[in-house]
Amino acid sequence: xxxxxxxxxxxxxxxxxxxxxxxxxxxxxxxxxxxxxxxxxxxxxxxxxxxxxxxxxxxxxxxxxxxxxxxxxxxxxxxxxxx
Length: 83
Fold this sequence. Notes:
The structure is a single chain. By secondary structure, this protein is mostly beta strands. The protein has one domain (2-80): Outer membrane efflux proteins (OEP). Helix content is 5%, strand content 70%. Strands 1-2-3-4-5 form a five-stranded antiparallel sheet, with no helix packed on it. A hairpin with a 2-residue loop joins strand 3 (32-45) and strand 4.
C-alpha cells in the first residue's frame, strides 16, 4: 500500500488525514485491492488530551472471514487522563 498523509495545526487542534491505495496477497491467494482513508484530530488542555479518529479500510478478509471484499468503518475517541 502506498499512502500519503497531511497534518496541520488549527488553533489548539492538530488535524491529520491519511489516504492509501494498494494491493495485498495472503498466502497463495491472488492479489486483492486495499484502500485506507483516515481522519484524526487531537487537542491538549492542561494535562489532559482528547484524540478523535474516524476512517474506512477495505482489504481482502478471506483468511479470517471468507469474504473477498471485506471492509469496515470506525470512529474512535480517547480521553487521556494523568494519574
